[in-house]
Design a protein that fits this description.
This protein has 639 residues and is mainly α. The chain has two domains: 402 residues, no CATH class; 208 residues, SGNH hydrolase (Rossmann fold), CATH 3.40.50.1110. Helix 2 packs parallel to helix 6 and helix 5 crosses helix 6.
């Protein structure tokens, strides 16, 4: 390693960034902002690459683009060409159904267009209820590589124009101004492409144009304070670098916290603020004697930082193969196992494959030592590949053990109690309803109520339960991802369904089990939720409506239970505005053991309980005998 260009504090930044990303994918509480670690990587890369280009231009008056691109190939391809075959071989052995999709992802990853491929195919990086895919994170490498291809020629033009204009100032102002305009354009593009009510915002999150601001911010700071000038400035004092580094570190931490509590933060200026903070942190950490520089230069962070590229590559396949399909949260023991396997693979790959290839590949010298090193590296490559496949396969084999250790012989059982529900509903008196016609509008949480797989006994499904309390004509309108406003895959939203029914002359009762996606899509905004409820009620008019409260077991993200609680509050307020509303308080009755591993949907026990209780709630809310109707708004059925 060239000590002249080695700044240990920057390895510390890499370490913190990659650890934040891992925490996000492990779904660590309060670390949903960890995905912003990618933006920190972007800014650091933009700064370092631009500094090298600026220094080369200052020394030679030109840029050797071929040499630059070969250095990037030696740095990036070795680990990637280990990762992709390891994932494909593992899929062929234990997940053959996923092999086709992973093969396509591998192909676009090799050509560094994974981000655009995901955008064009409609993939959602923030898949709501599924475990992550082993190659889902390669979109960020695609953006970086596209930058490495496009930026050097553009940087040369900017430096050339600046050299023609510059006289006495050390700052290349034409380059600074033009780069600043590019940053502004990228920030505006991110804002315009983001739709806060959309189900899929991959275009905004993974677009090269929308995420370029982070990389370009690093380039902008390089034009102002290139790396070789920082080292010179370090000798004259460290007051301003200390201030900049500590302030920037505070900004980065605030951004991570803000992104955890407010998912829109990234798109509404958060990316720009984080990029500024990251660039300032780079400047502060590059000074070896500043507080930030010393803190980020400790040995453990340096070790992680040097291997951060491999750690980033390997962590998600380990998580994906270890996680069950539902994507539930990892236990502390499982998280430690992920870290151990990830760091181990990254360390071995770094020592046996990445470093040797970086030293010898594509070199003009044809020495005997080089040939021997290439042969040894080929053997090491095969060894690491086999080890990676063994690790991935072992991870998939651990899944059944996890279920049994947690008392879950059935992955869909959601808990030990799931398979042992002995409630005899036949012994519970039926509460007859005055509703003879009923439409049940529901989202994916209602699918299990009508599923023969979830509820093999027809008498336990929703139709039979409603019939038992007196409903004569029952029409389910249930679809996954349904909400009152948003649509997915051309499926009608609830508002459209209800409007169509009313226009067709429907004059019966309604059960609206919709309180899952709307709180998520509105981030729990009570005012927005109230407006949505009002829109539905204006369409229905005076006909009886039974809404349901909602609950999840999630502590963060769009589907966190805090958003569901806001939905319940909006329903309580609506109950005071409309006399024909009743609210079944499912949230107060559902048990944790009734949830599936995604902590949102229900296992067979939960569906069995919910189908019965919904029918009972309908009878309690709108009883056959009018004088029996309760005065309270919220309906509870049984303990």
């Amino acid at each position: 390693m060239n000590d002249r260009r080695y700044y240990p504090g920057l390895d510390g930044i890499r370490a913190l960034a990659v650890c934040a990303v891992i925490a996000y994918h492990l779904r660590v509480p309060l670390m949903q902002g960890g995905l912003l670690g990618v933006s920190v990587f972007f800014t650091l890369s933009g700064y370092l690459i631009s500094s090298l280009l600026i220094e080369e231009f200052a020394q030679t008056g030109s840029l050797d683009l071929k040499a630059f691109w070969l250095r990037r190939i030696r740095r990036l391809l070795p680990a990637l060409t280990l990762l992709l075959p390891a994932v494909l071989l593992t899929a062929a052995l234990v997940r053959p159904a996923a092999l086709r999709d992973l093969g396509w992802q591998s192909l676009v990853a090799v050509f560094y267009v994974a981000n655009w491929a995901a955008i064009w195919s409609g993939d959602d990086y923030f898949e709501r209820f599924a475990a992550p895919g082993p190659l889902d994170h390669l979109w960020s490498l695609a953006i970086e590589e596209q930058f490495y291809i496009l930026w050097p020629p553009l940087c040369f033009i900017l430096l050339f124009l600046s050299a023609r204009v510059r006289r006495t100032s050390r700052i290349v102002w034409p380059a600074v101004v033009l780069t600043g305009l590019l940053i502004l354009g990228s920030t505006v593009a991110l804002y315009l492409h983001y739709d806060p009510l959309a189900i899929n915002n991959t275009r905004a999150y993974e677009g090269t144009d929308t995420r370029a601001a982070s990389i370009l911010m690093g380039a902008l700071f390089a034009f102002i304070w290139p790396m070789h000038q920082i080292k010179q400035a370090a000798r004259s004092g460290r007051t301003w670098p200390d201030f900049m580094g500590l302030t920037a570190l505070l900004v980065v931490l605030v951004c991570l916290i803000a992104a955890d509590s407010e998912p829109d933060f990234l798109y509404y200026g958060g990316e720009l603020l984080l990029s500024l903070g990251s660039a300032g942190l780079v400047i502060g950490a590059a000074h070896a004697h500043t507080i930030a520089g010393r803190a980020l230069s400790v040995a453990p962070l340096r070790w992680l930082g040097r291997r951060s590229y491999g750690i980033y590559l390997w962590h998600l396949p380990v998580i994906a193969f270890l996680a069950d399909e539902s994507g539930g949260r990892f236990s502390i023991q499982q998280s430690l196992l992920v870290l151990l396997l990830t760091f181990g693979l990254a360390a071995i790959s770094y020592s046996l494959v990445e470093n040797p290839i970086r030293q010898y590949a594509f070199r003009p010298e044809k020495t005997r030592a080089q040939h021997l090193s290439v042969g040894k590296t080929a053997w090491h490559y095969t060894l690491v590949l086999g080890l990676a496949v063994a690790v991935f396969v072992s991870c998939t084999l651990m899944q059944p053990l996890q279920y049994f250790q947690n008392g879950k012989a059935n992955p869909d059982a959601g808990g030990a109690a799931a398979g042992s529900d002995t409630t005899n509903f036949d012994d519970i008196p039926v509460v007859a309803t005055a509703c003879r016609e009923l439409v049940h509008v529901g989202d994916s949480t209602s699918l299990g109520l009508i599923s023969a797989i979830e509820l093999p006994e027809p008498a336990e499904r929703l139709a039979a339960r409603y019939t038992r309390v007196g409903v004569v004509r029952f029409a389910p309108a249930i679809s996954g991802a349904r909400s009152m406003v948003e649509t997915l895959n051309n499926e009608s939203n609830a508002t459209t369904i209800i409007r169509q029914k009313m226009r067709a002359g429907y004059q019966g009762c309604w059960v609206l089990a919709l309180g899952t996606n709307d709180p998520a899509n509105t981030r729990g905004n009570i005012a927005m939720l109230s407006r949505r409820i009002d829109t539905i009620m204006k369409i229905i008019g005076s006909y009886p409506v039974l809404w349901t409260t909602s609950k999840t077991l999630l502590a963060s993200g769009r589907y966190q239970n805090a958003n569901m609680q806001n939905w319940n509050t909006a329903l309580a307020r609506a109950c005071n505005r409309y006399k024909n509303i009743a609210v079944y308080d499912w949230a107060s009755e559902v048990q944790d053991a009734w949830f599936k591993e995604d902590r949102v949907h229900y296992n067979p026990t939960g569906n069995r309980q919910r189908a019965f209780r919904l029918a009972q709630a309908l009878g309690l809310a709108f009883p056959a005998k009018e004088q029996q109707r309760p005065r309270q708004c919220f309906i509870r059925t049984m303990k």
